[in-house]
Amino acid sequence: MALRRRGEMEPYLRRSLALLWLLLGLGWGSSAWAATEPPGESLVFGIYPYLSPSEIVTYFSPLADYLQQQLGREVELRSAPDFNAFIDRTRGGDYDLIFTAPHLGRLAQKQSAFQPLAQSGWRIEVLVVTRKEGALQQLDDLKHHSLAIGAKLSMTYQLVNHALALRGLQLEREVEFIQTASFSNVIEAVVRGEADAGATGTILWQRAPEAQRAALKEIYRSESVPGFLLLSHPRLGEARYRQLRQALLSFATSAAGQRYFSTTGQIDFRPLDEETMRSLDPFTGVLRLFKALPH
Hints:
The protein has 295 residues and is of the alpha/beta class. The longest helix has 19 residues. Helix 6 links the parallel strand 6 and strand 7. The relative contact order is 0.16. The strands form 2 sheets. A 6-stranded mixed sheet has the order 2-1-3-10-4-11, with helices on both faces.
């Protein structure tokens, strides 16, 4: 049996090791590891944990490999076991570069001076779905029913809770909140009858198996808000910031980028200005409820 060349084996080993660490909930590093790692050896790319560990590695390895080629510096994927841990690790300086939800990106900018690099062309729209044969027809019908969402700290939670409030309802009061292991599990929870309805983003809904989509119906769609953000830690400096920003904005023109955006549904990476960042302020206040922000 022929052996792989060393250059062919390394991406496979790197991806396998990343998956192992992510499955252990360590996300390729903790604060203790980061404190002892010699600076400059690698660029640590933090992905906020909205997907399962295996999905994070599968979807983001091509982007990490591209950045490594463009920057001439190793890029390591890391994540965290939950949103709170991701916020803590971002604030603690564990990540050089982050891919995150819009409100968490604004939080990183305000708390830790992270520099905005780019935003996805895709914008967040939240759908609420329920079983096709069920009695629920609109958001108002959720009173005294259960709703599955991937995480309390997510934009999905905030957008749905805001929409419910306009109808005189509130999550965890009139509407039972069920938190799933990840956003990838929301649709499955509804199909299995573990929740009466589920809130998910359009990307995950479009990627859901056809059999699941056929069993469900949409009863609500939110307004759109900025999608995923990429930001860099200020310690990287101006030259590295500019290099990263240019690489990200050019990613869609590469073969790897075309495959990445086709797979993830993120469309492309676009410039991210201060006006967009300020527009996210209304969505960061709720983080105080979960001790993500100082009072």
